[in-house]
Structures are given as C-alpha cells and as structure tokens.
Amino acid sequence: MSEHANLLRRHRAVMPSWMALNYTDPIEIVGAKGNRVTDAEGNGYLDFFTGILTNMLGYDVPEVRDAVERQLATGVVHTSTAYLLRGQVELAEKIARLSGIPDAKVFFTNSGTEANETALLLAAYARRSGQVLAMRQSYHGRSFAAAGVTGNRAWTNVSFSPLDVHFLHGADRHLPQFAGMTDEQYIDACAQDLRHVIATATGGDVAALIAEPIQGVGGFTMPPDGLFAAYKRVLDEFGILFVSDEVQTGWGRTGQGFWGIDNHGVTPDAITFAKGLGNGFAVGGVVARGDLMDGLHAVGISTFGGNPVSMAAANATLDHVLDHDLQANAARQGATIIGGLAAAAGRFPVVKDVRGKGLMFAIELADPGTGEPSPPLAAALMEAARERGLLVGKGGLYGNVVRMAPPMTLTDDEAAEGLGILIASLEAVSDTAVAGGRGGSSPHKDGAAG
Ligand code: PMP
Q: pTM of the entire structure?
C-alpha cells in the first residue's frame, strides 16, 4: 500500500465518516505557493477553491509569512480576552472603519459558525426575542443556532433549533409562482412575503434577519441586487436587525462591493466574517453597531478568538487586499471567467446555469434529458478538472453545482488557464453524458460543506 493510500485508510479509521473528502482518490496537499498547490504524488494544481475559500491571497505570501514569523519571534503565542493585544485592536479598527456601520465594534472568533452564534446572540439579547428570520437554502454553520438558521437541510444534521426560525424566499427564485417576473416584481413579491411572515407568524417581535448576500454552500445562488434593500425597509419598520453573513462574500471578492451586501446598497446592523481573512489561519468575527455589542452583559461567546498569530496574518492579509486593490482585480478576472463560461455554456446541454459575481462563480449541472439537477455530472466535472490540473468546489441543494472562488490575487494568465480547463472539462463530461446517459438527482447527503 502506498503511503498516500495508507493515510487515507487511517483517515477513514479515526475520523468521522461524514468528513467526506473531495474526489474518488482524495488529495493530500503537501506544498503550496502562489495560487498553486502540489499533492503527495507530485501533481500540481491551479487552486480555484483554496481549501474552502480560506486563502484570499493564495499561498506562502511573503508579507503574511513575515508578519506571522515576527509574532512567533516575540514568544507571545497565547489567546486571551484578559490582556491587551495590539494586533486585535489594530485589526478591529480597520474592520470597524471598513464596515460602514456607525460606531462599530468588533469581536473576534475562530470560525464563521462562532461569528454567527455571536451575531444571533447580540440580536436576541438586544431585541429580547428568540425569533429569527433566515433564508431558504442558506448555510450559516453547524452549531445549534447556526444550523437552526441554515435553510438547506441537505447540509445539516438537525432540525432542532434553540431559536424560533421563519424562512424567507429570496434566492430560490425558480419556484413556479415567480416565473416570468421581472427583478422589480420579484423583489416586491419577496418584500410582501416578508411583511406577511412578520405579521402572521411573529407579531413583530423578531430579533433579526440573517442572510448571505450570495448563498455560498447553497451553490452561489444570488437574489437580484436590491432585494435586501427592500427587505431592510420592512425590517426597519419593526426595528428588526439585519445581519449580513459575509463569510464567503466579504473583502471585495464580489468585485462590485467590498461587502457582498454593498451590491444591495444596504448597511447592516452586523456583519459576520471568517474564512479568507487569515489567509489560512483561523480567524472569524462579528462587526456590529457598538450599542448592540456593548449591550451584551457577558463576556463574548468564547475566550479563545483573536490569537496574536491569526491577528498578525489577518492584518497583513487585509492590508495586502487594500494596498493592491484586489477588489478591482476580482471584478476584472471574474468578468473574464464568468463571461467566458457564459459564452461557452450554450455548447453544453449539461450546463443549466452559469452565474457569479467577481471571483465567486458557479456552473450548475443538470441531466440533459430530464433537466433534473445532476450531482453525478457535478462530480464528473470536478474529477475532469482535477485531471487537467484545476481544483474546484461543489455546492447546491443537490450537490449539483460546481463552484469556484479563486484567490483574489489571480493573474490574467491563471484566469485564462482556469477558464480553458473548465471548458475542456465540460467538453469531456458532456461527451460522456451523451454517450452514457449520465444524470439523475437525489438531495445532497455528504458532509463536505463550506
Ligand atoms: N457562513 C457561511 C456563509 C459559510 O459559508 C460558512 C462555512 N461554509 C459558515 C458560515 C461557517 O463557517 P465555519 O465553517 O468557519 O464555522
């Protein structure tokens, strides 16, 4: 048995079966530089998913490495809410300023799940209510509260929720009652639905609406720009808070706005973030109106967030994003790739949809015969891209969406290379689908969410 095969055997023996690994022959990454990684067998890949969106700048970035090494050299490697930590204050100042939220304050966590727990706690406490609004097909994490507001049951274990949750439409526009509507009509219908839910199911005493501006795990589903502005007008009438989960959409990735919610012209009461900020180091958090943050009469949700090494990495990463205007790069490279995919899509009957904003884009696969969502085709596309040297991710209610969020440092050449591989992979998969009649859907049931 090869060392690689032996590692896989050991993984299966001691790690939970629901930690489903990508690919029939899972990859062990042993080296990484720039926007490329190398596996244990010496294969190189262009990385369009970086773990699960964890590396905004790609790998082995000199500024991030230097900042981390400087912090390590001080010997101060602990995590504390009891002492002043300069890196926390500096990063909080930057994020508060960038948030656009008046008098904003920041609390750091280690993950997006904890960030959302914190935001829900703030809202429930401020409003003295355990009622929350969330979106169908959303993903916010797998703790009890975060799973409770996750409207994509295919990706969660529990239906139990400590909060009383009401789910809204928004991104699931393909329902028959919305057929043929313009964006304006659709937004209007959603706003009316929100008003109706509040009036009929809650009595108005709702803590917050939590939503992703673009649904990540949901398969990069996007409500039309302006939907959340319409929602916000209704929420404001009732004093209901709005939490934007920017774990995937933040830091300029969507190109048009620094936060995904900027695409809707809305300033939320709280923003949650995680993933890419530490460029691989664990850091998450919530930035919220100061009165909400200070209103919590207890220490934060954990004593363990914001360790100095993660703060050093995150400060260096955020500075790099801003200094190099990576938001503009995300807009430019994203337009090339999305435009290229959209132009090619007509040639492939397996492609149901190409969508995205900036460096967040997806290909939805459907059985060419029945039009049904096709998880096997998505899996085949992932394998075909891997064979050609490109790593991508998957998502969607049925696991039938191949989604990508390359590092925001993506170059012109890398964008062209990735696009070329995707088109070649679609050709290969389409040929097999036509020859072998591949397809068929059942709701997604593996655990590799992200
Ligand atoms: N919110 C969103 C939008 C996410 O995509 C994720 C992770 N996929 C989470 C929250 C949970 O973050 P974490 O896995 O870091 O706990």
A: 0.96
